[in-house]
């Protein structure tokens, strides 16, 4: 594997990790909103 390919792969992995983490946070937020009684 060339260095460039390694960099690309690492960037891709970190991006997916960030995306997954963000989606988890979003889900938690949404659940909290659902639990709140709406007025």
UniProtKB/TrEMBL annotation:
<protein>
    <submittedName>
        <fullName>Uncharacterized protein</fullName>
    </submittedName>
</protein>
<feature type="region of interest" description="Disordered">
    <location>
        <begin position="1"/>
        <end position="39"/>
    </location>
</feature>
């Amino acid at each position: 594997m060339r260095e460039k390919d390694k960099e690309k792969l690492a960037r891709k992995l970190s991006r997916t990790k960030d995306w997954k983490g963000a989606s988890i946070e979003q889900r938690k937020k949404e659940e909290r909103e659902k639990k709140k009684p709406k007025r």
